[in-house]
């Protein structure tokens, strides 16, 4: 209701008012009002419209209710502040030693409707109350601290769902390493930190050490060498590329098994900000962009709930295995991402510009694509939301129907990269005959890949091979968003053990492709019924480009061009999501 008016309350004005008036508090008591347990009640002085006023404050298990002001007339009479929107609260003495009063400041970030839009964004509101019942300053402070402690406890953390989702919380106090890339996006990450994030973390009582990255791979080096016993979380403020460095730094440590359990977080400072937009989406927020997205992610970071996050191991021919948390792209999407670097000054609009340029000179990419379809056990701990395979054109290949839900496919001889022939083995038998991808996993740190064979060997027989060999794009996603306004896989969750594989076959018109990208903004890619778009859920994939030149990206970073394969590792890392996906 009238949070805006109450937010005008400043410490100085409250302090002034306190000197001139009295205030009453009542001891802690519990009663029930409107289904909520009332824990504390008090009458405090506060200031509105530059006038000292008295208000009644009630703390229930869910809300802080401010009634008043008195004396009337003032327009606002009751403000209900949901404790879920509170990131922190503190009690303190004023700077004037002659002033016996103590103060309570509580920091809320409630959702407010965006101007000229149906969307909602979080906006900061501070409430400050003065305690001066007693002449003894320490007694006043004690009372204020009691209020602050209970508000913090009640507003602390969202409750994890009771459906078996594995979540936990950052410890308090939390020792956070915060890596900021001053060059990311439009080069504003540091000023955005100063404008919003520093204050939010301080309000939430999150201790953090700010490290400004100085060059490419700086974050990777820091993380690889860090004494992890000194840190409770590692957070980056940049685009997705800096988190990619952090994840890969953790997974190349000799103690990778322990290292990868450290919660990682992201604050949007780049131009794409796909993971940040995904985290906001998982929290149930309506779409927001730019600084609104930053504040939402800052709010969720302060809430500190941690969820498992899938990582995908990626193999190319001659460089070491990588770990990816976002996407693997070839063709149109990868080209736009990299070629639009020159429009970086335009921020997120760079992708729109890049898309239009690339549309004007549409390319076809030749290659072979194969994958291991998802089966029931992909989501064994979670209800499958949709059919694992949804083909907009109702076909994976010209000869075979898509695999049915929960069915292990058994497709002989068509799985034949390198012209090898496979017998009609069952899933189980085949695995026995073809051990995991030992070459890539025995020497390097990180978990073994149980679904992959070395890139120079034929595919396992239970993989599907896409019959088409000409593509406009291939895109594997494991988060919901590809960019702030690109909702590629709206049903994706952070730890479902699934790769969402999309490909667009050659032959699509420019206008149809543009329609796909416009639909993506609304998360309606699959509603386009585009005959050239194919979507399926997979656990592993292999791509072998035949076009001599091209770009392959992993989490938006260019990797070696050539054969590439990937396998999802469910819940391998831990991500600060602030909510349950
Ligand atoms: N001080 C620095 N100067 C130059 N490059 C840096 C610096 N710090 C980090 N980097 C590198 O910048 C690269 C860009 O990272 P990131 O993706 O996070 O930002 P971005 O490219 O601006 O974001 P987006 O991809 O969303 O546009 C990373 O590879 C990182 O190694």
From TrEMBL:
<keyword id="KW-0472">Membrane</keyword>
<dbReference type="GO" id="GO:0016020">
    <property type="term" value="C:membrane"/>
</dbReference>
<dbReference type="GO" id="GO:0012505">
    <property type="term" value="C:endomembrane system"/>
</dbReference>
<dbReference type="InterPro" id="IPR017438">
    <property type="entry name" value="ATP-NAD_kinase_N"/>
</dbReference>
<dbReference type="Pfam" id="PF19279">
    <property type="entry name" value="YegS_C"/>
</dbReference>
<feature type="domain" description="DAGKc">
    <location>
        <begin position="171"/>
        <end position="318"/>
    </location>
</feature>
<dbReference type="GO" id="GO:0008481">
    <property type="term" value="F:sphingosine kinase activity"/>
</dbReference>
<dbReference type="InterPro" id="IPR045540">
    <property type="entry name" value="YegS/DAGK_C"/>
</dbReference>
<dbReference type="GO" id="GO:0005524">
    <property type="term" value="F:ATP binding"/>
</dbReference>
<dbReference type="GO" id="GO:0071363">
    <property type="term" value="P:cellular response to growth factor stimulus"/>
</dbReference>
<dbReference type="GO" id="GO:0043066">
    <property type="term" value="P:negative regulation of apoptotic process"/>
</dbReference>
<feature type="compositionally biased region" description="Low complexity">
    <location>
        <begin position="415"/>
        <end position="427"/>
    </location>
</feature>
<dbReference type="InterPro" id="IPR050187">
    <property type="entry name" value="Lipid_Phosphate_FormReg"/>
</dbReference>
<keyword id="KW-0547">Nucleotide-binding</keyword>
<feature type="compositionally biased region" description="Low complexity">
    <location>
        <begin position="435"/>
        <end position="454"/>
    </location>
</feature>
<keyword id="KW-0808">Transferase</keyword>
<keyword id="KW-0067">ATP-binding</keyword>
<keyword id="KW-0418">Kinase</keyword>
<dbReference type="InterPro" id="IPR001206">
    <property type="entry name" value="Diacylglycerol_kinase_cat_dom"/>
</dbReference>
<dbReference type="GO" id="GO:0005737">
    <property type="term" value="C:cytoplasm"/>
</dbReference>
<protein>
    <recommendedName>
        <fullName>sphingosine kinase</fullName>
        <ecNumber>2.7.1.91</ecNumber>
    </recommendedName>
</protein>
<dbReference type="Pfam" id="PF00781">
    <property type="entry name" value="DAGK_cat"/>
</dbReference>
<dbReference type="GO" id="GO:0046512">
    <property type="term" value="P:sphingosine biosynthetic process"/>
</dbReference>
<feature type="region of interest" description="Disordered">
    <location>
        <begin position="385"/>
        <end position="454"/>
    </location>
</feature>
<dbReference type="InterPro" id="IPR016064">
    <property type="entry name" value="NAD/diacylglycerol_kinase_sf"/>
</dbReference>
């Amino acid at each position: 209701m009238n949070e805006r008016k109450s937010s005008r309350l400043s410490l100085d004005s409250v302090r002034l008012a306190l000197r001139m008036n009295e205030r009453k508090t009542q001891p802690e008591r519990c009663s029930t009002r409107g289904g909520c347990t009332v824990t504390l009640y008090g009458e405090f002085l506060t200031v509105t419209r530059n006038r000292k006023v008295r208000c009644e404050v009630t703390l229930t298990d869910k809300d802080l209710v401010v009634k008043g002001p008195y004396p009337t007339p003032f327009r606002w009479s009751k403000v209900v502040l949901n404790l879920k929107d509170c990131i922190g609260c503190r009690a303190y003495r004023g700077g004037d030693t002659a002033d016996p009063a103590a103060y309570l400041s509580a920091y809320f970030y409630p959702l407010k409707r965006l101007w000229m839009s149906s969307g909602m964004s979080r906006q900061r509101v501070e409430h400050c109350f003065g305690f001066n019942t007693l002449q003894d300053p320490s007694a006043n402070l004690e009372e204020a601290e009691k209020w602050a402690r209970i508000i913090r406890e009640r507003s602390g953390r969202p409750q994890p769902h009771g459906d078996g989702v594995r979540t936990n919380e950052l410890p308090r106090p939390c020792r956070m390493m915060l890596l900021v890339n001053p060059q990311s996006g439009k080069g504003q990450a540091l000023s955005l930190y100063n404008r919003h994030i520093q204050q939010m973390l301080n309000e939430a009582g999150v201790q953090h050490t700010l490290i400004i990255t100085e060059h490419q791979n700086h974050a990777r080096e820091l993380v690889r060498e860090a004494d992890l016993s000194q840190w409770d979380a590692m957070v980056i403020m940049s685009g997705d590329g800096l988190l990619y460095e952090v994840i890969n730094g953790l997974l190349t440590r000799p103690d990778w098994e322990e290292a990868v359990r450290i919660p990682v977080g992201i604050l949007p400072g780049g131009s794409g900000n796909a993971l940040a937009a995904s985290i906001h989406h998982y929290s149930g927020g309506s779409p927001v962009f730019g600084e609104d997205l930053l504040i939402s992610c800052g709010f969720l970071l302060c809430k500190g709930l941690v969820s498992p996050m899938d990582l995908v191991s990626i193999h190319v021919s001659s460089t070491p295995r990588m770990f990816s948390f976002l996407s693997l792209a070839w063709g149109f999407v990868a080209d736009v991402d990299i070629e639009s670097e020159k429009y970086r000054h335009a921020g997120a609009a760079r992708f729109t510009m890049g898309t239009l340029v690339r549309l004007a000179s549409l390319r076809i990419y030749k290659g072979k694509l194969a994958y291991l379809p998802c089966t029931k056990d992909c989501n064994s701990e979670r209800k499958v939301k949709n059919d694992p395979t949804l083909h907009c054109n109702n076909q994976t290949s010209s000869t075979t129907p898509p695999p049915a839900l929960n069915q292990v496919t058994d497709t002989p001889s068509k799985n034949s990269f390198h012209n090898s022939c496979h017998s009609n083995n069952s899933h189980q038998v085949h695995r026995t005959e073809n051990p995991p991808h030992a070459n890539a996993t025995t020497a390097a740190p990180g978990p073994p890949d149980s679904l992959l064979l070395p890139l120079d060997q034929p595919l396992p027989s239970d993989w599907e091979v896409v019959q088409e060999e000409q593509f406009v794009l291939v895109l594997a996603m494991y988060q919901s968003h590809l960019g702030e306004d690109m909702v590629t896989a709206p049903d994706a969750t952070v730890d479902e053990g699934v790769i969402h594989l999309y490909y667009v076959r050659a032959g699509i018109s420019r206008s149809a492709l543009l329609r796909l990208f416009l639909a993506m903004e609304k998360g309606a890619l699959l509603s386009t019924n585009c005959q050239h778009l194919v979507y399926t859920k997979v656990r592993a994939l292999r791509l072998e480009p035949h076009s001599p030149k091209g770009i392959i990206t992993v989490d938006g970073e260019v990797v070696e061009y050539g054969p590439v394969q990937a396998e999802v590792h469910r819940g391998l890392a831990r991500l600060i999501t602030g909510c349950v996906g």
